[in-house]
Design brief:
Elements: H1 2-23, E1 46-55, E2 58-66, E3 74-77, E4 81-87, E5 90-91, E6 97-98, E7 105-108, E8 114-121, E9 127-135, E10 137-138, E11 141-142, E12 147-155, E13 160-161, E14 165-166
Parallel strand pairs: 6-13
Antiparallel strand pairs: 1-2, 2-8, 3-7, 4-5, 4-9, 8-13, 8-14, 9-12, 10-11
């Protein structure tokens, strides 16, 4: 009887230690080769749309990307592609162009936010949107997956998106 109690106590302690250890997961698990996942992957960053200062004949919105701790920095270049705007889940149907230097490389990751500009002509024919979806670009091509940014904005025919730049 004494042996069974010791075994039960040891087994219970081992299970409790394992459960506590399992509950203390890393912020982001490392990959098989010990490197943290890339901050550029859509699931690994946050994006928010805010109103920017207007310019002559245009409204501007800033999309700021931030990455939590635990992700590897990565390089981005140029304007995002496949940009779409939606309002309450419905695509608003505005085609988007690009402007600016598409070759400048910026580093993005924890503590290194980046942003890009959405420039909308003030032509009186804008439509409301509350979300933007887009594909980020690396120096050597597109990063797989679609990123999403939330925030109120108005878009219109002739909307263009600038290249990713350093800073929030």
């Amino acid at each position: 009887m004494r042996m069974n109690r010791k075994f039960t106590a040891v087994a219970a302690a081992a299970l409790m230690t394992g459960a506590v250890g399992a509950g203390a997961a890393q912020a982001s698990p490392a990959t098989a080769d010990g490197v943290a996942p890339s901050a550029c992957r859509p699931a690994n960053h946050l994006a928010k749309i805010t109103a920017g200062p207007a310019s002559s004949g245009h409204s501007h919105y800033r999309v700021t990307l931030t990455a939590p701790r635990g992700y590897e920095p990565c390089e981005l270049a140029g304007s995002p592609t496949d940009v779409r705007f939606s309002n309450h889940g419905a695509d608003v149907g505005i085609a988007v162009g690009h402007y600016g230097d598409q070759t400048t490389v910026v580093t993005f990751g924890p503590g290194r936010p980046v942003h890009f500009d959405i420039q909308v002509p003030d032509n009186g024919r804008s439509v409301a949107a509350q979300e933007a979806s887009f594909t980020l670009r690396a120096p050597d091509g597109e990063i797989p997956g679609t990123s999403f940014a939330d925030g109120r904005l108005n878009v219109a025919a002739g909307t263009v998106v600038g290249p990713v730049e350093r800073g929030a």
